Amino acid sequence: MKKALVFFSIFLWLSCKTPKSVTETVATEKRTAVILPPEAVETAKKTKAYELGKRVLEACNTSRFKAFTTAEATSKVIANATAEKISATCQKIILRNGKFIDLKLTEVIHNEVTDELLFRYAIQYEKPLFKRELRVTLNAENKVSALATKELKNQPF
Predict the structure, then answer these.
(1) Contact, 74 vs 116, CB < 8 A?
(2) pLDDT: is 54 or 10 the higher one?
(3) 33-42 burial by CB neighbour count: b if 16+ within 10 A, else e?
(4) Are strands 100-111 and 33-36 parallel, antiparallel or unpaired?
(5) Which residues have CB under 8 Å from 32's CB, separation 6+?
(6) Which of 26, 75, 87, 136 has minimal CB crowding within 10 Å?
């Protein structure tokens, strides 16, 4: 019994004295996205993103949507941006926000890994009760690779 007690106490003492291996992670993470001022982006890219975003939102007012071509958008966007899907989304948005008026560029984000530009626009509607934003992503080939609209949370005064 004494041997077991001595053995256990030595084992306990050694376990407390052993250095704990801590894996230190070196913070070598590179930033992948950079916020650019709108003036730093080529005018042609800003205009293309604005025109394509406006075309989608104008479809809410006119109920006519001109489909994207392969020169304007990727195949994934062309497949997802159908007249039926846009019409269904527009009906929900028009009930809450009213008719679409215009877009205002708020921010441009450059993804350095994929070389994509994300244009964030504030959408102006008749009823300014709920704020929405439109995100248009242009890839390296200057084609729209993503379109998304999102309702923004109201910020307290």
Answers:
(1) no
(2) 54
(3) eeeeeeeebe
(4) antiparallel
(5) 111, 112, 113
(6) 26
In the numeric block, the tokens 């304007």 are attached to 72
- Spell out the alpha helix ranges (H) of the chain: 2-17, 43-62, 75-80, 83-97
Quick one: pLDDT band at residue 127, thresholds 50, 70, 90? confident
Phi then psi dihedrals of residue 66, to 5 deg: -90, 120
Neighbours of 133 (CB within 10 A): 17
Nearest to 146 by CA among 123, 124, 125, 117: 117
pLDDT score recorded for residue 27: 45
Question: What's the pTM value of the predicted model, to 2 decimals?
Answer: 0.76
Which parts of 18-145 fold into alpha helices (H)? Answer: 43-62, 75-80, 83-97
